[in-house]
Amino acid sequence: MLIIGSNTTEQHPVFGTMIRQAVMHRGVKLVVADPRKIDITEFATLHLQLRPGTDIPLVNGLMNIILEKGWEDRDFILNRTEGFDEVRQTLEHYTPEHVAQLTGIPLEKLYEAAEILATNKPMAVMWAMGITQHIVGVNNVMDLANLQMMLGNLGVPGGGVNPLRGQNNVQGACDMGGLPNVYSGYQNVTLDASREKFEAAWGAQLSQTVGMTVTEMIPGIEEDKIHALYVLGEDPIVSDPNSSHIRKCMEECDLVILQEIFPSETSPYADILLPGASFAEKSGTFTNTERRVQMVHQAISPPGEARPDWWIIAEIARRVLAQGARQVQPAPYSGWEYENTSQIMDEVAALTPSYAGVSHARLERDPAGLHWPVKDAEHPGTPILHVGQFTRGKGHFMPVEHVPPAELPDEAYPMLLNTGRVLYHWHGGEMTRRSAGLLEIYSHAKIEINPEDARMLGLNGKRRVRVSSRRGSIEAHAWITDRVPTGMIFSNFHFPESSANELTIAALDPVAKIPEYKICAVRVEALD
Fold first, then answer.
1. Is there a cis peptide before residue 122, judged by omega within 30 degrees of 0?
2. d(Cα 484, Cα 527) in Å, to the nearest integer?
3. What string of DSSP letters covers 19-84?
4. Rounded Cα gap, residues 290 and 309, in angstroms
5. How far apart are alpha carbons 22 and 1 in whole angstroms?
6. How many alpha carbons lie under 13 Å from residue 103 in its C-beta half-sphere?
7. Which one, out of 41, 94, 319, 345, has a CA that is 20 to 30 A from the CA of 465?
8. Which domains does the chain have, with CATH numbers?
């Protein structure tokens, strides 16, 4: 296994435990590529401690060595892929010596990693937001796909390119069209056939224009492009980059509707608060990182006026239609007259080929769930994608070049900030900071700093630091540890009073529009 850009045991602890068991009891060889000495490195055959923002040079360098040694899967490349010659030409520039210089990884470790990954088949790649939250996030993922196609590790058990999703139903939200460029099942809004199918089902005229991502919408308030926000279960004040700018935009927005289960840092900016129901208070499905669709059953009743999210959305939609604000013709699914989530899933199945065979009744009979695509009511599901051939036919190699991060240390801001989460808290912390037991273990924000940097800064036993970037400052406790290399600090965003996102930069990947949360330049000062 190759884990890159994922603090797996802290952010995906169940899966992390499975990986540890595989290493200890089945002899699985594990390579971890991460700037920090995260916990999973203790179980790794090899830890590649690369400089932040050098994932592409590392992956390209490994492929260069694989070609040098003749370890590539020539049959797979010939029969199942195209475009390999272009990638081969690109890789010529990423010699092991050059890659060692760019990444800071010793030459011998590069050769050792290439041999482990290429000669132990099948090999699985796991990544998370340490790969995607960069201005080259899409290219990082493309390059990992290049590596796996070169080694013939796609469409086989134990192989694959495996993104570990950031939250428990991110996959399901994307499957249902929670993206600005697709309907459910990744049916593109710009394709006439897709649009016409949904227009006929919903009785409405639909736009062919790709929408905006959240990282475009909130700045769009200042640009007079956005006048209202409907925020469901999200806390942009805490979780979006450059928090001071987010606060300014939210203050300027004409209308903010917030649907939430607890008061959050975004709540003070809301004109209307809608009380949603938590996961335990509603029924439906979750789709996890392996495309497994599973039932979730209501265990307790929502308190007070809280209601399931689907019910609130449907009620608003019915009121919009009643006011005549939207012209809708009679159609199979135009009325929003749902009585339960089973009926919604029936509509999903009717309009979404990858979910065509999914129903609540079927999931009740099979609690283990179904892996999409499930093509019809008799189809068993698809635990492994790309068996025999790719969805597009042949896999397409994509040449990928290194692009430096948007902001690197300089004289004014000489250190590099890396951000992430810790085991005891989750994302914005709205639930975990309400747990007395978790707060007793991890009660406040901590800045991880290398002992050598601590000495240079003159901490001398002091325990608080001020960290500043070009966007803001925070104060927090210092954790002096060799988990981080010299020249780099690590912080989390679980605690609003010391959130790392006061510091982070809103530079975006040009394709996915995801911010470069993982790298920005900072200055660190010791406090009395």
1. yes
2. 21
3. HHHHHHHH----EEE-SS--GGGGG-SEEE-PPTT-HHHHHHHHHHHHHHHT-S-HHHHHHHEE-H
4. 24
5. 10
6. 29
7. 41
8. 2-164 (3.40.228.10), 170-371 (3.40.50.740), 415-527 (2.40.40.20)
48, 109 in Cβ contact below 8 A? yes
pLDDT of the residue at 315:
95
Q: Give pLDDT, residue 334.
A: 87
Q: Is the pLDDT higher at 166 or at 465? A: 465
Burial call 119-136: b when 16+ CB within 10 Å, e when fewer: eeebbbbbbbbbbbbbbb
The values of phi and psi at residue 521, to 5°, are -90, 135
What does the pLDDT read at residue 462? 73
Question: Which residues does 323 contact at the CB level (< 8 Å), separation at least 6?
Answer: none
**Cβ atoms of residues 195 and 206 within 8 Å:** yes
100 and 136 in contact (C-beta within 8 Å)? no
Give kind and range of the element (H or E) at residue 319: helix 309-322
Cβ-based neighbour number of residue 509 at 10 Å: 19
Q: What is the mean pLDDT of residues 184-205?
A: 94
Q: Would you place residue 396 in the very low, low, confident or very high pLDDT band (cuts 50, 70, 90)?
A: very high
Q: For residue range 407-418, what is the model confidence (pLDDT) as tens digits? A: 999 999 999 999
Which residue type sits at 422? V
pLDDT in tens, 242-266: 999 999 999 999 999 999 999 999 9
**HSE of 75, CA atoms in CB hemisphere, 13 A:** 3
On the question of pLDDT at 29 being above 90, the answer is: yes
Per the CB < 8 A criterion, the answer to whether 288 and 168 are in contact is yes
Query: Is the pLDDT score of 513 beyond 80?
Result: yes
Burial 168-206 (b: 16+ CB within 10 A, else e): ebbbbbbbbbebeebbbbebebeeeebbeebeebbeeee
Report d(CA 364, CA 341) in Å as an integer: 13
The enclosing H or E element of 272 equals strand 272-275
The pLDDT value recorded for residue 519 is 94
Residue 7 has pLDDT above 80, yes or no: yes
Question: Could you tell me where the DSSP H helices lie in 135-271?
Answer: 137-150, 170-175, 192-202, 214-222, 236-239, 243-252
State the pLDDT at residue 335.
83
In the structure encoding, which two tokens stand for residue 31, read together? 């390579």
Rounded to whole angstroms, how far apart are CA atoms 267 and 247? Answer: 11
CB 64 within 8 A of CB 99: yes
